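wait is this the right file?? whatever heres the structure
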């Protein structure tokens, strides 16, 4: 208690700095692979992808980022083990942010798309299990989170498979793919607009004081989806197409139409990612601020300080803009050859899975969700369409992330403990 009262401001400032570092790492790694499908399919340039991500990532983090925060903060470790020495929780959460942030920056430098959720969960479990005791970790919660890491890539892969196959059946494998593209693409746009707006209305807007019933939310989401579809149809009709060209050229023209659709799904993916993964940076930071503000008391529920969500949003945006190109290249080109229609299927499937998880408060791995979706699209074309060597390296980087996050967190925990004690 005395330590928190004496060094409280210093601890909050340091935690804020490492929280920003973690958000920066999330931007460099996770956002880069979230936008990689758009860049890899050539629907967007890197510059365009970064601008879109900056706007929608920040909006997702700020408007809809509060739901998952409580799960990260309260679910993984049992706060009752820290009541006698609340400063240990402050050191631990700060150490976890520092450990996960550093690992993400190292991974981003080498172009490895690792999981930020793996990083922070491994770091929190590490300091708590070794620094406080194995019983302080709520292993059932950890098991549920790890289970979701297996289930969500599977779900997003299946959704992506069916979206891609539907576009093949309705558009590409028909006698007149261009006419069918103009007919069906607005429906895909409606779906993207509906998913994005529904999570915003039901989960995000309560942070700015707006509340809607489930039926009102669905009606509003349908209206937004319809508007997106109408705007999309106007843009699709503007795509210049040569009706006399051969069928191969028709396919290329259809891909032009899907490029328009990719912009919508890129926005959805960026918003979905911001709403879900900002919690990995602000969750531990919120815990530190709460303990210091309450003079060492670990409260059951803490309100986010006004500056925490913007800090996470700005950190994510800067990380992407400054350091995101390397991981973007791995996802965009490494796993399978992406065209706008394939990239659209992967992004919409991943966005759907992420916003569902974000709404239920489950901290899934966006990286695994997106890679699962890209694999689903690749599998629809046969196993030969996948670069299995790249897939293997990605999976290995996921596996080593947990122990590396835990190990670094334990080291930093004991360093902080020795400095302030």
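ok assuming it is, sequence goes like this
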């Amino acid at each position: 208690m005395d330590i928190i009262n004496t060094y409280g401001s210093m601890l909050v400032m340091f935690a804020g700095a490492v929280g920003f570092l973690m958000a920066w790492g999330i931007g460099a790694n996770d956002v880069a692979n979230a936008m990689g499908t758009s860049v890899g399919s050539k629907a967007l340039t890197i510059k365009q992808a970064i601008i879109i991500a900056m706007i929608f990532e920040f909006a997702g983090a700020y408007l809809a980022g509060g739901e998952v925060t409580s799960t990260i903060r309260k679910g993984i470790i049992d706060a009752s083990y820290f009541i006698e020495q609340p400063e240990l929780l402050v050191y631990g959460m700060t150490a976890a942010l520092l450990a996960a942030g550093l690992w993400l920056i190292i991974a981003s430098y080498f172009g490895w798309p690792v999981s930020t959720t793996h990083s922070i969960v491994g770091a929190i479990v590490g300091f708590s299990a070794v620094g406080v005791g194995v019983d302080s970790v709520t292993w059932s919660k950890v098991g549920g989170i790890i289970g979701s890491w297996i289930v969500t890539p599977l779900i997003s892969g299946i959704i992506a498979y069916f979206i891609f196959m539907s576009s093949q059946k309705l558009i590409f494998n028909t006698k007149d793919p261009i006419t069918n593209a103009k007919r069906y693409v607005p429906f895909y746009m409606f779906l993207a607009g509906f998913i994005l707006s529904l999570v915003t209305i039901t989960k995000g807007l309560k942070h700015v004081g707006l509340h809607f019933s489930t039926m009102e939310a669905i009606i509003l989401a349908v209206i937004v989806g319809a508007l997106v579809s109408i705007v999309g149809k106007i843009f699709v009709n503007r795509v210049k197409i040569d009706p006399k060209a051969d069928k191969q050229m028709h396919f290329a023209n259809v891909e032009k139409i899907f490029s328009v659709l990719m912009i919508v799904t890129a926005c959805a993916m960026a918003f979905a990612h911001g709403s879900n993964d900002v919690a990995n940076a602000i969750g531990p930071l919120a815990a530190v601020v709460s303990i210091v503000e309450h003079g060492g008391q670990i409260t059951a529920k803490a309100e986010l300080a006004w500056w925490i969500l913007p800090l996470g949003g700005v950190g994510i945006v800067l990380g992407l803009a400054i350091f995101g190109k390397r991981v973007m290249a791995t996802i965009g080109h490494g796993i399978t050859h992406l065209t706008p229609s394939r990239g659209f299927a992967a992004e919409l499937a991943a966005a759907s899975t992420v916003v569902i998880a974000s709404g239920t408060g489950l901290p899934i791995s966006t990286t695994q969700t997106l890679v699962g979706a890209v694999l689903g699209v690749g599998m629809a074309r046969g196993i030969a369409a996948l670069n299995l060597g790249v897939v293997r390296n990605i999976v290995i980087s996921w596996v080593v992330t947990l122990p590396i996050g835990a190990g670094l967190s334990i080291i930093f925990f004991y360093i902080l403990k020795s400095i302030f004690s």
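The chain has 15 helices and no strands. so i think its the right one actually
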